[in-house]
Amino acid sequence: MKHLVNKQNLFALVMLIILGINVISCTKDNVDDSTALDPAMVAALEQYVDNVVIETYKDLADASMEMNEAVAKLNTPGGITEANVAAACQLWIKSRKYWEQSEAFLFGAAGDYNIDPHIDSWPLDQTQLDNLLSNETIMENFDADYAAENLAGGLLGFHAIEYVIFRDGGPRPFTEITENEGKYAAGIAEDLMRNTIRLEAAWAGMENITNEKQTILTDNELEPTRNYGDELKAAGMEGNRKYPTLKSGFEEVINGAIVIADEVGNAKISDPVESGNVLDVESWYSWNSLTDFQDNIISIENAYLGGVEDKRDETKSISAHIKKLNPTIDAELRAAIDTAIVEIQGIGEPFRDHLNQEDTEAAVAACNALMEKLEQAKSLLN
Amino acid sequence: MDTTEKIPDLENRYLPGGGTTISALGSFSFDNPAPNLNAENEEIHLQGDAEFEAEFTAAPAPVNAGLGVQFNNTSCLKCHPSDGRAPFPTGNINQFSGFFLRTSVPGEGMHGAPNPVPGFGDQLQNQAVLGYQSEVKFTVEYEDLPVTFADGTVVTLKKPIYGVTDAYMDFPSDAMISPRIGPQMYGLGLLEAIPEADIIARQDIDDADGDGISGKANYVWDPETNSTRLGRFGWKANTPSVLVQAASAYNGDMGVTNYLFPVESSYGQSNGEQNLNDDPEIADEILDDVTLYCQTLAVPAARDLENPMVVRGYNLFEEAKCSKCHISTAQQTGVIQGIPAISNQTIYPYTDMLLHDMGENLADGRPDYLANGKEWRTRALWGIGLIYSVNGHTDFLHDGRAKSIEEAILWHGGEAEESQKFYRELSEEDRKAMIAFLEAI
User: Fold this and answer.
1) The predicted structure's pLDDT at residue B163
2) I want to staple B341 with a disulfide (CB 3.0 to 4.6 A). Which of A106, B36, B132, B441 is the partner?
3) Could you tell me whether strands B57-58 and B65-67 are parallel, antiparallel, or unpaired per DSSP bridges?
4) ipTM higher than the 0.85 cut
């Protein structure tokens, strides 16, 4: 994971070493007195967990269930129709939106359970896919269980479904889709659905998801082993191994945002420009790339401002805390989020037709500026 | 003993990676570039970072071609998630994971290496590009090993017993197998930079000092220099450098050929012919960039070293003689040409870089160069307390069989038997103190 570190913090740390100064002070706060936790910071983390992460994952799981139902129709006799393909495409776009809006928090369950690479690997492994689709022995019984147990990331997830149902930025002509492709897409969509439900359960707790979702997880032995939401909400409380301080909880949230700002600017946009290879462009078949990138920045916005759009409470946000520490940096960070969204939009659709430095440099610079502001905000926590 | 005696040299010990140390908690503790990298190396590091993530696909393909034909996983990151440690694959052992089995038959191979199994080589790939049959599938069963503490507490260790099934051809009955799991990646360049003379000076092959602990360096073949060199990496120190480790992982784990290993691992096998004449499958600079990336990941800072419980744990660690192998004093790195960030650093990795007999329960019965079937290289302990945060599990040792740091201690036998017994004699409070120390460094 590309992750740029806080240069200011690092400079300070190196100076401490050079000057031979004891750095105990930078670690002493690992033992928080839980009675002294800043209630505003606690509230901000609760808001983040409940109204950013869990809300997004709930929407993602719900949309993935809808997509699964739609894609399953392509695996029914006579089910590969223009209307069914178009419906599947719409629901792919809807699910994709929530997934991309979750990428500022790929830490925790998405990584520990290997869900991110499982459902969002790129590139698609075309050679293996051709081998799979032409292998009647495998395809006869192909389903989500087979996919989960036997396929690598390049044959799974959003881009595998996208390959079957999209072409050139729109629904694929239904007459081109074979029965085996319909069966394959259905298996992949069900596997994707299970994993997105697992994400919701891992943050919200099994008891807080619907009975239908619980059954899907238990039937497939995918019950999460810990509650990531409770763990982050309890940052700074005694016995919290992962987040021994409130500061470490805040840093986690900001680091998650930094990683995706970096990824959008320096990988998702820059890599295909550098290579000139249109196949380096993620979401290649749907031409959804720029929407993906903007949703990634919206993920940062939701994380920073205290909620997804209709659940937002800026008084309980990371932003409110940063504003108290340095209102200028808070304002600049907010502006940097807006600028990044605008500049990504400014590249021009479809992204594949603008793989040159002139069209993309403003967006890359805006992502890097956003990353820098996030680093500055993080440094204020010291 | 005085268990309140302060931990010495806190100034340096808080920064176990010297100038490469970064203060970080949470999920992002292991994937940071060393903060003291110069601009040129930082650029290479970031390029290597992207390549480390790259998902390989079966050739021919327009992007990242070269996966397989035989392989264990599809990217570096999947065996070293978040640059950390892979969990043991629970449930289906053949799911995509950071686990695999090495293999060999009795006798010596080229340059003293393990003798490869005809038709299978020295590493078993349990995945294959669709349309090909994988070499084998892995199996595992468990044997309970109850361990009783002096206070009556019982912990039951699960001893894994591995096997293979569904081999594409007869798997020889005399073939030995040895499990491996992908370890965390930070600090590797620093370990590479420890002067060879310092490591050799710690050897006590015949236990001349009579302390029951020997320590032996491994000497292995280096395909970069075409010479025998000190082994530093791998669970049995069977690899001389980060470069060779990375190159062999590309080839053995992913089936991706490169300038050091230009021949497919399954070359000549009936389940492995690719015939695409596309070797090496990655550009030379990709291997070099990934190597520098692996050499220059920041070491996480130590924490809480003045906490009384951690101090108590340190003193118990010393009294138990754990530090005979996991040496707890500072080490100095030498010079790695071109990477000043990892050169001339004062570090606290808590390893002597030597092989030790770890007893029957950990034995794999498979020699690897000079390492016999009971010997393993002392692992560095820096940062292990953060694995739970970064990777969401606490599976330790060479195959993840230990489910906690405590279990890892209990698995120690052979030269470490007395230290393990010392731990078992401790009160619950003292046991917690020692774990607290290990989680703090």
Assistant:
1) 98
2) B36
3) parallel
4) yes
What CA–CA distance (Å, rounded) separates B304 from A231? Answer: 21
Bridge partners of residue B331, in order along the sequence: B347
Burial class (CB in 10 A: 0-12, 13-18, 19+), A311: middle
d(CA A117, CA B306): 40
Distance from CA of B168 to the nearest CA of A (A): 17
- pLDDT for A35: 54
Structural contact between residues B162 and B140, judged by C-beta atoms closer than 8 angstroms: yes
Phi/psi region, residue B113 (left: phi>0; alpha: psi -120 to 50; beta: rest), is beta
Query: Which residues 223-242 of A have a C-beta within 8 angstroms of B?
Result: 226, 241-242
User: How close A274 comes to chain B (CA, Å)?
Assistant: 12
CB contact (8 A) between residue B18 and residue A152: no
CB pairs under 8 A between A and B: 185
B135–chain A Cβ distance below 8 A for any pair: no
Put simply, the chain A residues between 22 and 61 with a CB less than 8 A from any chain B CB are 22-24, 26-28, 30-31
Does B152 contact chain A (CB < 8 Å)?
Answer: no
Candidates A128, A253, A262, A281: best to mutate against B (most CBs of B within 10 A) is: A128
Query: Which residues of chain A have a CB within 8 Å of the CB of B74?
Result: 121, 152-154
Question: Quick check: B67 contacting A, CB < 8 Å?
Answer: yes
B301:A243 CB<8 A: no
- Indicate the average pLDDT of chain A: 91
> Does residue B26 contact residue A248 with C-beta atoms inside 8 Å?
yes
Count CB atoms within 10 A of the CB of residue A225: 11
Please name the residues between 35 and 54 in chain B that touch chain A, using a CB distance below 8 Å.
35-36, 46, 49-50, 53
CA separation for the pair A325, B374 (Å, rounded)? 57
B379-424: per-residue pLDDT in tens?
A: 999 999 999 999 999 999 999 999 999 999 999 999 999 999 999 9
Per-residue pLDDT reduced to its tens digit, A56-72: 999 999 999 999 999 99
pLDDT higher than threshold 90 for residue A334: yes
Total number of residues shown for chain B: 441
- DSSP codes, A319-343: HHHHHHH-HHHHHHHHHHHHHHHHH
Judge contact between B245 and B103, C-beta under 8 A.
no
Q: Is B127 on the interface with A (CB under 8 A)?
A: yes
Structure tokens at B43: 């650029």
Classify B170 as helix, strand or coil: coil
Cα–Cα dist A66/A87, whole Å: 10
Distance between the two ends of chain A, CA-based, in angstroms?
A: 24
If phi > 0 it is left, if psi is from -120 to 50 it is alpha, else beta; for residue B255 that is left
Helix (H, G, I), strand (E, B) or coil at A278: helix
Instruction: Give the Å distances, CA to CA, from A117 to A155, B74, B183, B215.
Output: 11, 10, 19, 41
Please give the average per-residue pLDDT across A136-161, as a whole number: 95
In the numeric block, which tokens belong to residue B421? 């017994």
Q: What is the DSSP string of A123-182?
A: S--HHHHHHHHT-HHHHHT--HHHHHHH--GGGSHHHHHHHHHEETTEEPPGGG--HHHH
CB B233 within 8 A of CB B241: yes
DSSP designation for A282: S
Q: Give A-chain residues touching B25 at CB under 8 angstroms.
A: 30, 242-245, 248, 251-252
* Pairing label, strands B65-67, B70-71: unpaired
Q: Rounded distance, CA B134 to CA B141, Å? A: 21
What residues contact residue B322 under an 8 Å CB cut-off, 6+ apart? B328, B416, B419
pTM (two decimals): 0.94
Residue A141 CB contacts under 8 Å (≥ 6 apart), including other chains: none
- Looking at beta carbons, which residues of chain A come within 8 Å of B82? 1, 111
